[in-house]
Amino acid sequence: MRQCLTSDLGGYYTATAPSETDQFGARGDFVTSPEISQIFGELIGLWVVAEWIAQGRRSAGVYLMEMGPGRGTLMDDMLRTIRNFPPLAKAIEAVYLVEASRNLRLAQHKLLCGGNPLSENGTGHESTSRYSKDLKIIWTEDIRFVPREASKTPFIIAHEFFDALPIHVFQSVPPAPPPSQKQQQDTIQTPTGPIPSPRRIPKTNEWRELVVSPKPPHRLKTDEPEFELTMAKAATPHSMYLPEISPRYQALKSTDGATIEISPESQAYTLDFAIRIGGSNPAPLTQPEPPRTATSAPLRPVAPARKTQPFPKPRPSGAALIIDYGPPSTIPANSLRGIKAHSRVSPFLSPGTTDVSADVDFLALAEAAVNGSPGVEVHGPVSQGRFLGAMGIRERAGQLVERAKEVGMGGKGGEGLGEVVERVESGWRRLVDLGPQGMGGLYQVMAFVPFRPVEEGEVRRRPVGFGGDVRV
Ligand code: SAH
């Protein structure tokens, strides 16, 4: 997935060949919510405003951060909304955009900064907002380049970002049957016949990784993908440790054929979000022993524990909002897919020109966050339909329609009044559609906010959109 999506050599997002169109919209491969309706970004902007109010209206040191901003539409709609709340707009020190694609970075710059110059800095690029020359917009290719300071309040948005991060796939297989000669040795001869020896071979399943392999030439057909998923013949470094990191995976190990998808990179990202909001766990007093395995030398070093500096944050602050496609509580399986021209295709079709994505495992992201920081709590996931409904999507659409009628004019690009009304109406309804294939039910929303122990007689605060209200 990494190679296909973000490789320097012709990745789907990173290919540098000039192109007339990008990946989005009717002429691209898929349409995302901010491209369907401006209300999506406006309500996410409002969510940030509500959290900022709920956390005591910090007057400085706020970072707005977005992972994989696409065309920049969501951030633009958010910034336009936040401008209506001047104390927050003033408190925003910088907007950080984590973006791997050069072409999309240029598109985001054009939308968010207009004609303001784009310059290189030590870790990426920067410019200033078209809304305010005091607001810096900074691009990096990885969240690790975004400064982490305990005094800052980061509001982090990730919409349709995690489904683009690579997954590993594992399947539980029963242990190989013992060779028949051995079977004989494992029986005890008695006058009434052989009885199995009590020394039985332990019957525990093992995880095998499903890996991408070239198809053998005799099965290769014209116009069919050259690659396929096959099961590794033996344990791989990843299959030895990744499925062991959570009780959710361990619980499936004894089920023959159980398939699980794990995205360590996604978990590393949400761990990072959580630490920025709530600080890291205190360092253990003694260093734990590195895990030992019964096997001989690994094929290559297995994910060496990165030495990370402890990051205490005495006053947790900020929030993260994750919106993506995936099951609300189960572990995704068989979800790797290709998308081309709005249709689902094999993920192995024409690598680098097909979008490849996988369902997001929301509970795995939540687990990484709460295990990694003592200062965050997780709310949701709730369906996008419910979240946007609670945020007031219907009311906002009504407002836009009323305004268009009052002005009595159409929108940009020669749109007539009727067309504007139709676009607003069909747009918001599409985002909240709870039908079987509707975006309202297929997309989930999850939030990380600062953890606050609930005192006796107190009710836990819920963020707006997750059952909470704003108290202004
Ligand atoms: N959030 C946008 C775009 C979603 S598409 C929207 O909703 O419209 C995924 C985005 O993530 C693109 O901008 C893509 O270039 C970016 N991206 C994908 N993989 C990435 C990675 N590993 N690191 C940084 N950005 C990545």
UniProtKB/TrEMBL annotation:
Keywords: Methyltransferase, Mitochondrion, Transferase
One of the record's GO molecular function terms: protein-arginine omega-N symmetric methyltransferase activity
Top-level enzyme category: transferase
Localization per record: Mitochondrion
Chief location of this protein within or outside the cell: mitochondrion
EC number assigned by the record: 2.1.1.320
Stretch list, region Disordered: 172-201, 280-316
Recorded catalytic activity of this chain's protein: L-arginyl-[protein] + 2 S-adenosyl-L-methionine = N(omega),N(omega)'-dimethyl-L-arginyl-[protein] + 2 S-adenosyl-L-homocysteine + 2 H(+)
GO cellular component, one term: mitochondrion
Annotated GO biological process: methylation; mitochondrial respiratory chain complex I assembly
InterPro entries: NDUFAF7, NDUFAF7_sf, SAM-dependent_MTases_sf
Its job: Arginine methyltransferase involved in the assembly or stability of mitochondrial NADH:ubiquinone oxidoreductase complex (complex I).
Family: Belongs to the NDUFAF7 family.
Protein name, entry field: Protein arginine methyltransferase NDUFAF7
